[in-house]
């Protein structure tokens, strides 16, 4: 059990003139489950490996349990790391694989026995202990890798894409298992994935990274509802947030956003004020709206603060309960998530509405949020 603090952590690999991790700051609390998420190459594994001590820290300070550990060797950091490829010893049984690290540390046999059987119980591996890895399923192998980490009672668990070799169904099952494991072990977990769904469902907090930069650290819900920037807005959520470029204009005393002369988007009064005050009038902005907030008008009378879009169905993807309607607005390709009860065919005319309160606005040059609802 320990908190993990990263202060202005940077990483520059030798021979690379760019920083792979730029100024990473986070205060991970004891027993917290934090997920690092971002596209391939953004620096997730590098950050995790620096925490593990497998990679030098170029600049900054790393504290585990209040102690500065930049120069402490991996084996003395009291952490355990689980990798994507399990790295089990094929000639050893499940029991021997789990016991291996403890044996190396000359742990007495009765204690090894006790720890391995406890871990096997937690992971549902009790009847597999005598088997060799090749006789196990992918999910079971991954559990053995977890077991090997558990028996060491580490202060911190580090996991780098531990589920990416599993098929989709097993991945979902193992997600739940790892979340349960975290509850049971009451230990700090730092988990790396490039899969936003995995991050959203597992992390108490998620760190969204891009090109070595931390774009946002937040609860999954906040990152979803209040993205700080265009990148987070589009990275979190599936299908992703619709983004259009539009011009902020004043018409009859109201500030609206004109999207390619095809749509005048209504805004909340508070947002209109902010746009005026911050000098956005007559400038372009990015406007974002999540597909689930675009719904059919179905002839219902509209209150103020709604924008109505008339368009044609380009494609309708039936997902079961809901249908993703693809439609165009000028050069923008947009998606609405609507209830499947009204089937839609291609080229059918549709009338959709966007509530002003569900609109996100981003600055064109900084891509930072201007204001959210
Ligand atoms: N040992 C190394 N020497 C030089 N550059 C490296 C080294 N390891 C990684 N890099 C570079 O650092 C960047 C970040 O790599 P990292 O493995 O941390 O990314 P990641 O976010 O884990 O990506 P992925 O999702 O593909 O695993 C990449 O551009 C990579 O090429
Ligand atoms: Mg990686």
Number of strands: 21
Counted up, domains total: 2
CATH class call of the largest domain: Alpha Beta
Span between termini: 38 Å
Q: What is the assigned CATH homologous superfamily of the largest domain?
A: P-loop containing nucleotide triphosphate hydrolases
Shape: elongated
Radius of gyration: 25 Å
What's the mean pLDDT score?
92
The appropriate CATH architecture of the largest domain is: 3-Layer(aba) Sandwich
Provide the spatial order of strands within the biggest beta sheet. Answer: 6-7-8-3-9-10
Low-pLDDT ranges: none
Instruction: List the ligand species.
Output: adenosine-5'-triphosphate, magnesium ion
Supply the number of helical segments: 9
Structural class: alpha+beta
Biggest sheet descriptor: 6 strands, mixed
Strand proportion, as a percent range, falls in: 25-35%
Helices and strands, in order, run as: EEEHEEEHHHEHEHEEHHEEEHEEEEEEEE
CATH topology of the largest domain: the name is: Rossmann fold
- Please estimate the helix content: 25-40%
């Amino acid at each position: 059990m320990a908190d993990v603090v990263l202060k202005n952590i940077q990483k520059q690999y030798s021979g690379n003139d760019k920083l792979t991790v730029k100024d990473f700051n986070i205060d991970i609390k004891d027993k917290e489950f934090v997920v690092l998420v971002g596209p391939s190459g953004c620096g997730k594994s590098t950050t995790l490996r620096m925490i593990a001590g497998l990679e030098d820290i170029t600049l900054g300070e790393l504290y585990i349990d209040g102690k500065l550990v930049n120069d402490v060797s991996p084996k003395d950091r009291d952490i355990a790391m689980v990798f994507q490829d399990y790295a089990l010893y094929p000639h050893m049984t499940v029991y021997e694989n789990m016991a291996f690290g403890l044996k190396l540390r000359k742990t007495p046999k009765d204690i090894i026995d006790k720890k391995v059987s406890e871990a096997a119980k937690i992971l549902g591996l009790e009847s597999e202990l005598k088997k060799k890895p090749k006789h196990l399923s992918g999910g079971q192998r991954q559990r053995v890798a977890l077991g090997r980490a558990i028996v060491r009672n580490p202060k911190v668990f580090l996991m780098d894409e531990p589920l990416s070799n599993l098929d989709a169904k097993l991945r979902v099952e193992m997600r739940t298992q790892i979340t349960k494991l975290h509850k049971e072990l009451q230990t700090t977990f730092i988990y790396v994935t490039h899969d936003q769904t995995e991050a959203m469902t597992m992390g108490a907090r998620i760190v969204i990274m891009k090109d070595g930069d931390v774009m946002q650290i937040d609860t999954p819900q906040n990152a979803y509802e209040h993205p700080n920037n265009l990148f987070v807005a589009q990275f979190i959520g599936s299908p992703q947030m619709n983004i259009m470029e539009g011009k902020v204009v004043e018409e009859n005393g109201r500030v609206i956003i004109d999207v390619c002369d095809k749509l005048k988007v209504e805004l909340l009064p508070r947002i209109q004020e902010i746009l005026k005050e911050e000098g956005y009038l007559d400038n372009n902005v990015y406007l974002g709206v999540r597909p689930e907030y675009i719904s059919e008008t179905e002839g219902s009378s509209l209150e103020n603060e709604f924008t109505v879009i008339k368009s044609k169905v380009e494609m309708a993807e039936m997902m079961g309960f809901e249908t993703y309607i693809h439609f165009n607005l000028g050069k923008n390709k947009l998606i609405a998530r609507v209830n499947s009860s009204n089937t839609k065919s291609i080229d059918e005319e549709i009338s959709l509405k966007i509530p002003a309160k569900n609109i996100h606005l981003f600055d064109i040059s900084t891509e930072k949020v201007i204001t959210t609802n």
